[in-house]
Write a structure and sequence with these properties.
two-stranded antiparallel sheet; 2 domains; mainly alpha; single chain; about 0% strand
């Protein structure tokens, strides 16, 4: 009892805030039927699960690295589009795997360049000029190789070959019959094209390391075994070339898979692409700017615009849907289901549950699967942070990164892993959200705002706070949407007041302001 009173005295503002939030929730469900508020809560948890996947990545990155990644929403959007591509057009993803793998292989050599360059002495003029020359040459080789690589891709401007039409083909199972395999143009050499990508990415990585060293001057370098970067290079390049050799049979195999398995592959590919992009961003762009917070914000803000334009160029500006896998798509016999067993047996898109004496229609994908994924990720990442060696290093790095590096741990590598993990979570959120809400070039900016609000409410660097803030944001949004249908009985008004759609995002901002006025560090944030 004494411990409770002591804890309450120390955190009474937090306890009072949580009590007020609980009372507001109880007040919100007054006047609603049990069915209405249960369905609203499920929809709020679904929105909160997607928001949490993005907010959790932001929280981990900010907690360890003090980097506010304003491109996080765009990377969430890229995850959704990559997932759609793997699900609807797996042939194009197989085609893209080779150039993407070779691109990563070249950049995997970057840890090798720093100690090698530190042993070389250049005149001041040469040290300033050669990185830019290497960068320009590397970019020229990359542009040639990437634009010449054979990829059977859709068109963002031609409607007959647009993602909208390919989505329609996917819904009726007619993608394979309409695909035209990509081939090299007459006179093109695969060796020349793949070599250009590999050499171009290696030169670009070398140039970035050279530019960083020319700015900072020669620094003492720890002795680094070349085995690890060379092994990473060999593995990535070998896998990329192997995928090129088995392109045709692998494509045929993927088209023969069920939509359920293809969707699982889409989740894995989107998350891995997110991890790869995040690691590449940290190693090439973020790392040189750790001491310049304002430049980090400007850089990630600019990357958000660049990523959005790339998405518009590749997939087009028009929004489209991602078909749900067969497990969640059936509306035939036995549907809507009356139980979980009935859903799994008939692959129903909806379940009818009797709640409070009334039938409630629950969407199996939106209100069941999405919530389960959010819960599984919450537990998995918590176990990673609390029960693994990497998690111990991350938590120690949040407290004192200099001490961790003094113990002989490569903090830079940990930073890269953490940044990649955070972006991977965002990409995972994108591919999970795509079948529920569709894809558009504005989805990243919308969810980034919601995630930042969730982090501010829960605590910027707190992983539990990210979960709590995301759930609160999701519930508030869905209750306001529901009140827009039912109305709110207010004093001095003859008719119920119905909130308009613009109030939905405004309500979460108002709640954030109230919480921050009471708790400037958020619900579970650390006091500085």
């Amino acid at each position: 009892m004494n411990n409770f009173l002591r804890s309450f005295g120390k955190n009474r503002t937090l306890f009072l805030t949580l009590i007020i939030l609980a009372l507001l929730f109880l007040l919100a469900i007054q006047g609603m039927t049990t069915r209405d508020w249960v369905v609203t809560v499920l929809r709020g948890l679904a929105v909160g699960s997607i928001t949490f996947l993005v907010a959790a990545g932001l929280s981990i990155i900010m907690g360890l690295m003090d980097v506010l990644n304003l491109a996080h929403g765009t990377l969430y959007m890229i995850g959704a589009y990559v997932g759609w591509s793997m699900y609807v057009r797996p042939d194009a993803m197989v085609d893209m795997a080779t150039p993407f793998g070779l691109l990563l292989a070249g950049f995997a050599l970057m840890p090798l360049w720093a100690p090698l360059l530190a042993r070389r002495s250049f005149s001041r003029n040469v040290a300033r000029i050669w990185p830019w020359a290497a960068l320009l040459l590397g970019l020229a080789l990359l542009i040639y190789g990437l634009t010449s690589a054979p990829v059977a891709v859709w068109s963002g401007s031609d409607y007959q070959n647009s993602p909208i039409v390919w989505t329609q083909f996917a819904e009726v199972g007619a993608v394979a019959q309409n695909v035209q395999p990509a081939t090299f143009q007459p006179g093109q050499s695969p060796v020349l094209i793949w070599g250009a990508i590999l050499l171009g990415s290696a030169l670009a990585g070398l140039a970035i390391v050279g530019l960083v060293q020319s700015r900072r001057g020669s620094e003492a370098q720890t002795r680094l075994s070349p085995a690890r970067p060379l092994a990473s290079f060999a593995i990535l390049a070998g896998l990329a070339l192997l995928l090129f050799l088995v392109n045709t049979p692998l494509t045929a195999f993927l088209f023969g898979l069920s939509t359920n398995i293809l969707f699982i592959l889409a989740i894995l590919v989107a998350a891995l692409v997110g991890v790869g992009l995040g690691s590449l961003m940290e190693a090439t762009l973020i790392r040189p700017l750790y001491a310049r917070a304002i430049y980090q914000i400007m850089l990630t803000f600019g990357l958000a615009f660049i990523g959005t334009e790339l998405v518009r160029t590749i997939w087009g500006r028009t929004g489209f849907t991602m078909p749900k896998p067969a497990l969640f798509a059936s509306t035939g016999d036995g549907c809507p289901a009356s139980s979980i067993a009935g859903w799994l047996q008939n692959n129903c898109s909806t379940i009818v549950w009797k709640i409070g004496g009334q039938n409630a229609l629950i969407r199996t994908y939106n209100e069941i699967f999405v919530i389960l994924v959010g819960l599984l990720v919450l537990i998995a990442v918590w176990l990673l942070l609390q029960r693994s060696r990497l998690g111990m290093i991350i938590r120690a790095g949040v407290q004192d990164s200099a001490m961790v590096e003094a113990l002989g741990i490569n903090v830079r590598r940990v930073f890269t892993l953490v940044f990649g993990l955070g972006v991977g979570l965002a990409a995972l959120g994108g591919v999970i959200a795509a079948p529920a809400g569709g894809l558009s070039d504005a989805m990243g900016a919308t969810l980034l705002l919601g995630s930042l609000i969730a982090l501010a409410i829960g605590g910027l660097t707190s992983y539990p706070g990210a979960a709590a803030g995301a759930i609160i944001v999701g519930l508030v949004q869905q209750f306001i949407i529901r009140f827009g249908q039912l109305g709110i009985n207010l004093p001095f008004l003859d008719e119920p007041w119905k909130p308009t759609p613009p109030i939905v995002p405004a309500s979460t901002i108002i709640l954030m302001i109230i919480v921050l006025l009471a708790l400037p560090q958020g619900l579970f944030g650390r006091k500085e």
